[in-house]
Amino acid sequence: MLNFMKRYFVYMLTNASKTLYTGMTNDLERRLYEHKQKMIPGFTKRYNLSKLVYFEETSDVKKAIAREKQIKGLLRKKKIELIEANNSKWDDLSLGWFSERDSSSPKESGSSE
After folding, report:
1. What are phi and psi for residue 91, nearest 5 degrees?
2. In a domain? residue 51
3. What is the pLDDT of residues 71-98, one digit of tens each?
């Protein structure tokens, strides 16, 4: 029997004003799609937060939850340092994850770091 490893992601989103949002999910591609399509009411929809600028992956849900809380507790300066250590231009790391032709669902083969 195959043992499939669970995957959990802690991520940060931003917008044109560089407002930051930190979240955690077990399906980053699906969750980004939901953010980009503004499917879920709340902070990210209200402030148009849909640009993925940072993410980490782990197989331990408890570590993911703890890391999300840790990042949320950081000063903004530290969050920016974390982003810029890996993504100095604040590029959208999810570019190319979704088909241009069909924006109604996530692309089957997502990209990952």
Report:
1. -65, 155
2. yes
3. 999 999 999 999 999 999 999 999 988 7
- Dmax of the chain from CA atoms? 49
Paired tokens of 59: 């197989």
66's CB contacts (< 8 A; 6+ apart) are none
Q: How far apart are CA 20 and CA 3, in angstroms?
A: 36
Place of tokens 């195959």: 2
Return the CATH number at 13. 3.40.1440.10
Q: How many domains does the chain have?
A: 1
- pLDDT of 107 above 60: no
Pairing of strands 21-25, 51-58: unpaired
Residue 37: domain span: 8-86
Residue 36 maps to a domain: yes
Q: Does residue 35 contact residue 28 with C-beta atoms inside 8 Å?
A: no
Q: Give the strand pairing for 8-14 and 21-25.
A: antiparallel
* Euclidean distance between CA atoms 17 and 105, whole angstroms: 27
